[in-house]
Design a protein that fits this description.
alpha+beta; Alpha-Beta Plaits; five-stranded antiparallel β-sheet
């Protein structure tokens, strides 16, 4: 067997990783773990180095910060600013975006920004409806200001924490919590100024705010109908389960109306009678087939007209609402049928919005993804259960009964203490964050079992799997080989333009891979280029970190963008139209600020 040079072998594995990330053959975290295993098998890293990502200080710190963020959200610590937002917002869209940005940005500097967006999505939806503002005018600013706030401190995002850990491994010090604040604050206010004064005309006015908003957004009238059981029907005397109509046909029975009494879920054991009206989700083709085979009639345009579709779905004890699949959800990659969603949550999915795509047929076979927006109908008490799950986000404000509000200020004090002890160098951020986790449990802000659901395991496994790739690139000389090519160009350029070059390359990688992957790949190379050109390595690391954390061009480049994609009713290019000018602005402003503040 012909031996392959370590650099060539490392580059082959790197290319395989990039292809898998871009094409999404398998989830990104699974790709990362597979890469770590492949590196061990190819002897590019030792077995100990291959699993070192799980014990890396950055990985553990990120895990602890997820748990601390959950402590804040579980106690309703973020809800305390809701009334402040409603007070400051006023009636002007510019004032509303500015108020939203300042509040969300400040919180995101200390709390994981995906957790912040998850809490504020239902708050902003409620706020927007009260103010009669199109939600598509607010959700992109929500995501972008959360991203901007995340680069004010090192603990604002997992990317910053990872960059700090890599800095230590490369022979430099870990970043202090407020190291990037002198750059982060001006970057935040530049971004907020753009969003406030220049973005509003670029933001679409697409998300409906009228009383029939859900019907308008999902076209419910086209696939939710009423059928009546006639004397000739063979369904009479059977339970819904015995009839098998939900298994044989692509329909869901949402409600049964018997003598004007509405029976909500669960319906499986309800005996069907003559004259019963069934409210069903299904295509016209399936309804016609049921009519012919089971002797029912379709009540077209009798009760079910455009104006009262949503009222019918929200009648009595029933309600309909949008539910977002979060990034740490176990529902991802499963189908509704596999999950037995109706039985598990006592509610029925009647449509799925995936970005611009609206899915309304064969829903049981659709493999769910992060960011999918489910239109769910069921009893009102079922939504209390959905509100408390850590895998789904109901886009309406949480019932205060589901939050431990008496613990809110304790949770806030714990996070403040973690920040303060790390900032004053009393304890390393790794230690202070772990102490904070234990205090969250001992004070009752979180129950012990809740910490597992609080962690974004996809991010943890992504970091743990990619850290060995960074080790392999360093050991094999791949980093130096890549750096030499850049040095050949960079030696003829001023240091500022070399920073711009790294910012651009990292920003592009972030959009097609992920922010953490971009940092792991680019930060060691940037450091070597700086060392070889006798430039400030810290400045280059900060340029890479800021470029990886500021992702605005696509809805898939950053987690918070994906979270608002469906709820905002956006199209893919909406993000490009609003985010590209901001990205171009930061491409030149951030390296300039780094040069002025930290020098080259």
């Amino acid at each position: 067997m012909i031996p392959i040079h370590p650099i060539v072998l490392t580059l082959i594995i790197l290319c395989l990783a990039l292809i898998s990330f871009v094409l999404e053959f398998i989830p990104a975290d699974t790709t990362a773990i597979g890469i770590a295993v492949l590196l061990i098998l190819c002897q590019l890293v030792t077995p100990e180095e291959g699993i070192s990502g799980f014990s890396n200080s950055a990985t553990i710190t990120v895990m602890a910060m997820f748990i601390l963020s959950a402590g804040i959200t579980r106690t309703g610590g973020l809800q305390v600013v809701r009334d402040l937002l409603f007070q400051l917002g006023g009636k002007s869209l510019k004032k509303q975006i500015a108020s939203l940005g300042i509040i969300v940005g400040f919180i995101s500097a200390f709390i994981n920004n995906t957790a912040v967006v998850a809490v504020f999505l239902p708050i902003i939806e409620s706020w927007g409806k009260k103010r009669k503002i199109s939600l598509s005018k607010l959700f992109i600013p929500l995501s972008y200001t959360a991203i901007l706030g995340g680069v004010i401190t090192i603990i604002g995002t997992s990317t910053n924490i990872l960059a700090s850990g890599l800095s230590k491994e490369l022979g430099y010090n870990e970043f202090s919590i407020f190291l990037i604040t002198p750059i982060g604050i001006p970057v935040f206010f530049i971004g907020l100024t753009y969003l406030t004064f220049f973005a509003p005309p670029l933001l679409p006015n697409r998300k409906s705010l009228n009383n029939n908003g859900i019907n308008s957004d999902y076209g419910i009238k086209d696939y939710v109908s009423e059928i009546i059981i006639t004397p000739r029907s063979n369904l009479i005397g059977q339970t819904l389960r015995q009839s098998g109509i939900q298994r044989k046909f692509d329909i869901d029975v949402l409600e049964i109306i018997h003598n004007d009494i509405h029976f909500p879920q669960p319906l499986a054991d309800k005996i069907l009678s003559l004259g019963d009206i069934l409210l069903v989700r299904g295509s016209k083709e399936d309804l016609l087939q049921i009519r012919d085979e089971r002797g029912v009639d379709i009540l077209a345009n009798v009760k079910f007209v455009q104006e009262n579709v949503e009222d019918e779905l929200n009648f009595g004890e029933d309600k309909v609402a949008e539910v977002l699949i979060l990034s740490n959800s176990r529902l991802i990659a499963s189908t509704l049928k596999d999950l037995r969603f109706r039985q598990r949550y006592n509610a029925t999915v009647i449509a799925i919005r995936r970005g611009e795509e609206l899915l309304r047929e064969r829903l049981g076979k659709v493999r769910l993804k992060f960011g999918d927006l489910l239109l769910v109908q069921g009893p009102r008490e079922s939504f209390i259960g959905l509100q408390t799950t850590r895998e789904l986000l109901v886009l309406e404000e949480r019932d205060i009964e589901t939050l431990r509000q008496n613990k809110a200020y304790i949770a806030i004090a714990i996070v403040f203490g973690v920040v303060l002890t790390a900032a004053l160098n009393i304890l390393p951020i790794l230690v202070s964050s772990l102490v904070g986790v234990m205090l969250m449990i001992f004070t009752g802000c979180l129950k012990p079992g809740e910490i597992y659901g609080a962690v974004r395991w996809d991010i943890i496994f992504l970091l743990a799997g990619l850290i060995p790739l960074g080790i392999a690139m360093e050991k094999s000389g791949t980093n130096q080989w890549l750096a030499n090519y850049i040095i050949n160009v960079g030696q003829y350029l001023p240091g500022y333009w070399v920073l711009v070059l790294f910012y651009v390359v990292t920003a592009v990688l972030t959009e097609i891979l992920s922010n953490n992957a971009a940092v792991l790949l680019m930060l060691p190379v940037a450091t070597k280029v700086a060392e070889n050109l006798n430039l400030n390595a810290i400045a280059f690391m900060l340029a890479v970190m800021f470029a990886a954390s500021n992702s605005y061009i696509t809805p898939i480049g950053y987690q918070t963008n994906t979270m608002v994609y469906g709820p905002g009713g956006y199209r893919f290019l909406d993000f490009t139209r609003v985010g590209l000018p901001l990205t171009l602005l930061f491409t030149f402003v951030v390296p300039l600020l780094i040069t002025i503040i930290y020098g080259l």
